Amino acid sequence: MRVKGRFGLVVTGGAGAMAILAAGCSGGGKGELASGESGTPVTITPANGTAQVKPDGTIEVKASRGKLEKVTVQGDKGAAVTGRLAADRKSWRSARTLAPGASYTVTAQGRDDGKTSTVTSAFTTLKPSKTLSITDVTPNLKGEKVGVGMPIILRFNRPVADKAAVERVLKVTPDKPVEGAWRWIGSDQVIYRTKTYWQPHQTVRFQADLAGVNAGGGVYGAKDVQQTLTIGAAQITTGSISGHHMTVKRDGRKLRTIPFSAGNGQTREFTTTSGVHLLMEKGSPVTMISPGRKEGDPGYYKTVVNYAVRFSNSGEYVHSAPWSVGSQGSANVSHGCLNVSPADASWFYRIMQRGDVLKLTGSDREVEWDNGMSYWQLPFEKWKRGSALS
Q: What positions constitute the catalytic site (predicted)?
């Protein structure tokens, strides 16, 4: 028997066919119509039962007659999949990628001539042999407040072939908007820096809609990542290496001026770098060993210091140095660090936030932009050129 129902569904067969037809024609009822069948007024792509759907594919729902009323997507992995309904309500498209190796069910309701039909499609996505994951987001310490210069640093589990595709799904949303840009450092690390410092005392939200993104070479993003940053007070320290003093301000208010003794300048290694640094980390005690030298070599040293705050990768710290108090504020005698008194070192250590700004002038050695977190050394226009989307 061959019968054509109200919604154009063509059904062939016996008793089972009649049951489907009755469901489709019942007055005001909802018909459960399989996706993709001939004549169905609402169709879903991928069709019901499809396997190995590419995660970066698109879900599409179309109404051949009438209009779409509602479309929902349920999956067993990853973030919810939302979409956009066309202005004429005749079509709907998903707005993001799908999780790899996942099962999805799409339910769509269409309305035509006062009657509603419901169509479902269940399908599975491809499970790739290689996936891309974010292994670290810095800053990442629970409850930490960071300084106004703090970058966002992402590290991936493998090299990224299609950097542009990945960068497009990285979103940074501060409470107080400011321009910023990503810059790739090699193939497995990308860093976000703002054009001007973050406004203090706010929340910044990072979102990576990575699940299902085609990262190139058959690699798909494994899962989404979210992180919230808390920007603390604007703590900015300015110091003169030749003047032997630095001044610490918080939110524009002077807190303290600290005398110090900087690097003696006898070699490049023993010259404290000028430029815009960010405070990176702290430790107490920290053991400092002369780089590139072993015990017995000229210039070798091994010293344990307290209240040490790092500001470069070339071994520069602000730290307690009770042995050089007599030179602090008047002469530079250190191996490159800023030696300060135990009392000043303890105070500076306590108030330090990762990402606080330390601006130093007065030496002939400029800190490199990629030495530690000295990213502010690079003009923003040059910084942006490291984006895959520039």
A: 319 (proton donor/acceptor), 337 (nucleophile)
Residue ranges and CATH numbers for the domains of the chain are 2-124 (2.60.40.3780), 130-232 (2.60.40.3710), 235-372 (2.40.440.10)
As a whole number of angstroms, the distance between CA 46 and CA 123 comes to 7
Query: Using one digit for the tens of pLDDT, what is the confidence trace for 110-148?
Result: 999 889 989 999 999 999 999 999 999 999 888 999 999
d(CA 233, CA 271): 30
Instruction: Please answer whether residues 385 and 181 qualify as being in contact, where contact means their C-beta atoms are separated by less than 8 angstroms.
Output: no
Q: Is 311 helix (H, G, I), strand (E, B) or coil?
A: coil
Helix spans in the chain (H) = 15-25, 163-167, 342-351, 380-384
Catalytic residue among 244, 277, 319, 335: 319
Task: Report the SS3 class of residue 385.
Answer: coil
What pLDDT, in 10s, does the model give residues 14-73? Answer: 333 222 222 232 223 333 344 444 446 899 999 999 999 999 999 999 999 999 999 999
Token pair listed for 266: 């006898």
Q: Is 344 exposed, middle or buried (0-12, 13-18, 19+ CB in 10 A)?
A: buried
d(CA 99, CA 165): 16
Global pTM value: 0.85
335 given a catalytic annotation:
no
**With contact defined as beta carbons under 8 Å apart, do 359 and 260 qualify?**
no
Residue 224's nearest CA partner among 55, 53, 84 is: 55
Active-site residue 25, yes or no? Answer: no
DSSP 273: P
